[in-house]
Amino acid sequence: MAQIFNTSQIAAVRQLFRDSLETFGDSFRLFYAPKWVSCASCLTTVNSTYTSNIGLHGGPLGTICPQCNGTHKIQQEVYEDITMSSSLSQTIIKNLAPNVQVPAGSMLVRGSLADYQKLIKSIEIKWLSQAADDRYRLVRENLDGYAIVTNDYFVALLSRIS
Predict the structure, then answer these.
(1) Cα(85)–Cα(139) distance, rounded to whole angstroms?
(2) What pLDDT is attached to residue 34?
(3) Is 125 exposed, middle or buried (0-12, 13-18, 19+ CB in 10 A)?
(4) Are strands 73-87 and 107-112 parallel, antiparallel or unpaired?
(5) Number of H helices, E strands in the chain
(6) Contacts of 121 (CB under 8 A, 6+ apart)
(7) Per-residue pLDDT tens digits for 103-114
(8) Distance of alpha carbon 78 from its chain centroid, rounded?
């Protein structure tokens, strides 16, 4: 059986996809689980308890830190921005995933395979190109199995949660 495309043509198409993703793609912010960091407002006392910092809160030394309630740990939001192409068309989603029930407000995204693990680890996804503050979550990934096999891109389904 003859090969339709040679390797240089396939490489050119892959590069074209990568370039189009950077040029025409939308920005998304992936939110991960919050991480615990040391409270910057605390002072350590002689008996190793954490008290309020006078400079930031103006309270007397020896009161419990209002920022962390004396635990010396606070949660910090962790996020990262990536670029993916998106489609809100229900017809395209139904064609790719005919056996999946698609809730209203779902979005089909396609991105670089380097961002695939980041998307799976995320808790929430925010579409930065949109004016509304809608948040999404990953419903289903690997909708286009051929793209994963050829190491080009991934296709995933996101559902609106707020």
Answers:
(1) 17
(2) 92
(3) buried
(4) antiparallel
(5) 5, 8
(6) 30, 32
(7) 777 888 888 888
(8) 10
